[in-house]
Each structure stands twice: as C-alpha cells, then as structure tokens.
Write the structure tokens for this entry.
Amino acid sequence: MDKMWAGRFQKNLDSAADDFNSSIRFDSRMYWQDIQGSMAHAAMLGAQGIISQADADAIIAGLEGIRADLDSGALAFDMAAEDIHMFVEAELTKRIGDVGKRLHTARSRNDQVALDIRLYLRDETNGLIGQLKELLCALADKAEAHKSAIMPGYTHMQRAQPVTFGHHLMAYAMMFARDISRMKDALKRMNESPLGCCALAGTTYKTDRMAVARALGFDGIALNSLDGVADRDFGVELLAAYALTMTHLSRFSEEIVLWASWEFKFVELDDAYATGSSIMPQKKNPDMAELVRGKTGRVYGDLMALLTVLKGLPLAYNKDMQEDKEALFDAIDTLKMCLNVFTPMIATMQALEGNMRRAASNGFINATDCADYLVKKGMPFRSAYKITGQLVAECIEKHTTLEELPLDAYRAHSELFDEDLYDAIRLETCVAKRISEGGTGLASVEKQIAFIRSII
Ligand code: ARG
C-alpha cells in the first residue's frame, strides 16, 4: 500500500519495518477521540475560512459516518494502516473524495496524537474515578454496619490497641479518596489543548485554537507549541496516581488474604469471589485479592516504562513517544479490571465480628489503657508504663489476662488501682474513650463515614 508520505521515497517500506512502525494494533482504541478531535478541527477550519464551510460540513458528516460504522462494527480497522490517524483520514477520503484531503490542513499527527491521548486519558480517568467512588460507597456501607465491631489494631503485625472494623475500613477509604483527588489534580493540569501546535512550530494559517479547545472541553491551550507536542508529563502523573491506587489496593488485598485465613477468620468471602483447589477439596482461596496484589507490579512497570521512554528525549516529537500508549492502556485496563472485582468482593464479604472480638481479647491490647488509668490518677506516664509492663509479664507467667488478674495483684504494684480499673480496661471502654479527632471512637468513625459520603 502506498503511504500518504510516499512522495519523497523511491521504494516501499520493508514489510517488517512497516509492522514494527505501525501502531494501529493498539491506538485504534482511541478512534472515538481521534474523530472527535478531527470534527472540532474541521469545524474551526470552516469557521475561520481556511476551508469552505461546505467542505467542513462534508468532512464532519463523513467523520460521523465513520464513527457510527466503527461503533456498530460495520467498518473494521485496516491493520495495514500506519496508525489510527492515517486510517481515519484514508477512510474519509475513500468516502467523500478529495474534500477529505483538506482535513489535515493546519494540523500534524504530532498535535493530533497529543490531543487524542489527552482526550482518551480524560475519559478513562473519569471512568476510574467513578469506579473508585463505587468502592468508597461500599466501604462507607460496610464501615457503617461494623462501626462498633472491635478488632485488634496492629503495628509490626503484633496486636497493639483495639480499633473498630469500621475505623480500619475507613483508613482505606481515606487513601482512595486521595487517589481520586490526585487523579483530578492531574486531569486539571492536563486539560490544555495541544491542537494547533501542529508538527512543532505552530502554523501560518489563521487558526482559532481557543475555539477548538473550548469545543473539546479544555480549559485552555498549550502556550508553547514545542511543549504541546513533545511532553507526556501528564501521562506520568496519571500513571503515578494509578500506581498509588494499586499500592492501596494491594495493601488492602494483603489484609483480605490474611483475614480470610483460618488463622484469622475475620472475614468470609462470598463464594462468588473465591476459588477452589484442584486437589484439596477443603480449599477456598482468596484469588481475587491475590491477583490484585500481583497486578500491582504491572502498573508500577508501566509507570517506569513511560518515565524511561521520556528520559533524555530531545524536543520535539520523537517516534519513541508512540511507546507511551501501551503503558498507559495497560495500566488503565489493569486498574479497571481490579476495581471491577475488588468492589463487589468487599461489598459481599461477611465480617465475622465474634472472631475479631475474640482475637482482640488476647494479646493485652488494653495495656496502654491500663497505664493511662494510673496516669489519670496522678502517676507519671513512664512509671505507669513500667508497672503495666510488669503486670503483663505477671499475666503471661500465670496464663491469665489483665481483665482476669485479681485486684490485690494490681494493688501489690500500686495503691492507685481500684475496682473501677476493670471497667477502664474493657475493650469497649478502650474504644469508646478514644475520642480524639480521627480516633477509633464511634463519633469519629461516624464523622469519617459522613466525610466519605460527602465526596461520592
Ligand atoms: N502513531 C504515532 C504516535 O503514536 C502518531 C504520531 C506520528 N507522528 C510522526 N511524526 N510520525 O506517536
């Protein structure tokens, strides 16, 4: 097939080189954005009198037809085309004749692809934000249902202090809320139209870049034409936001895996989100959570891939930049798939409050509260801490708990201990008394849930 740019050449492109060079295999997924951009461009060319209004109308109608046929499947992508931009333009000329050849006036594939990828990322990231909001909604509902369920809070994977399951879930909700805000922040910075930067230096035609930008929902235009076509920093920012979202999903997944084990049994996954073993009949595996944890690596790889593609590239466009797409697409596909199963897995998972409560009863997680009891009676914290440590050691030796240790054993360490100690170290009291802002006390957890609900 003759290339659009064949005029200058004596020979056809070698067929392996042609395959190597072509990006239609993956950039065809941006056809909607490519056509949307071309329509806005053609409208501007007509309005500015760069081409006739009749030609502009014919081009726009032709593009609409191509889009409808691609949507319905009546038209297939030509895998011999160099990329989506060439494919659409060739198809347009096939359909409307020479008028189609006027579309590429005052434009280059360089600003075209820089536009398409921005439009595509904007659409897809808005979709991801919607999915994250669904996850926040599921978390808020779960947290509401278990806002008083006591479980051990951990540091170093050692039982530390009691928290509620609702509080624990809300911690993840805060992380996902920041992920949304990071994505929105990156979208805002990206929302400048590169169309009209042309190949690298702008154009001699009297274009109206602002009109095109407005028609396409941009807040403004790239002010430097070299920058407009040559940077993909917005892609890096979004990939970093996607990667962090995966970090949060993978930490959560790790906890789901632990909680679903017989050692913990804090949760029971719904059968629809767990799998069996081919040999061990008793198994119920948390594959979804494990896969989310595993797929995190791919998204980190995508971020590193794009950073490395951009490193050291001279201005302006270089073909290396064609490599931006697969990394971005893979990250988007991966995150989309993960959220698609993660959210319903969380929504359907059963929290086993009794098991959480039992785990919280062992491990002396009320020891801090025992020390605080003495402090509130006037003892300096460091002394109270020391006495409580000795009491814990005594309990371990006698195979008992702080709740069951008799009062005279306490009083042997300090006269400040009294009957009211037992109420002070009840786990319910420990949680209820954590009234500091952001703490695990009920009012704080309710406030957190209300905040999350206010942003979805
Ligand atoms: N397929 C190319 C890409 O994805 C489109 C831009 C090509 N520009 C060029 N000057 N060869 O980057």
Q: What stands out?
A: Residues 23, 27, 83, 109-110, 113, 317, 319, 321-322 surround arginine (CB under 6 Å).
